[in-house]
Specification:
- This protein is about 80% helix and about 0% strand.
- By secondary structure, the protein is mostly helical.
- The chain has a single domain, classed as Helix Hairpins.
- Its main location: mitochondrion.
Length: about 120
């Protein structure tokens, strides 16, 4: 009886181990695919997302901008900042999200400008 119980336990551990390994491989593949999809600006953009706590897409959604235009970002920022001012009944939380979104988009603009300068400086052969 103990022999059968031991076999059942070993078999159960093997099944759980295989399922865990398969789930881990799927998670790595999904993570890699997400990194590839997000990899437009590479490591700098990912680092900026980690520092600000917002992804580029989130920041664009918060400020309602589709392309990175400094004028459009500033216009939407000023409007949303005023609307969410606590003195007019707005939300400090939403106002801080607007500020963080603007900071994230400005950081992305800096990254793009730096990449453009680096491309111009590359000697052509």
């Amino acid at each position: 009886m103990a022999k059968y119980l031991a076999q059942i336990i070993v078999m159960g551990v093997q099944v759980v181990g295989r399922a865990f390994a398969r789930a881990l491989r799927q998670e790595f593949a999904a993570s890699r695919a997400a990194a590839d999809a997000r990899g437009r600006a590479g490591h700098r953009s990912a680092a900026a997302s980690n520092l600000s706590g917002l992804s580029l897409q989130e920041a664009q959604q918060i400020l309602n901008v589709s392309k990175l235009s400094p004028e459009e970002i500033q216009k939407n920022y000023e409007h949303l900042f005023k609307v969410n001012d606590k003195s007019v009944g707005g939300s400090f939380y939403l106002q801080s999200k607007v500020v963080r979104a603007k900071e994230r988009l400005e950081e992305e603009l800096k990254i793009q400008a730096q990449e453009d300068r680096e491309k111009e400086q590359v000697p052509r052969t």
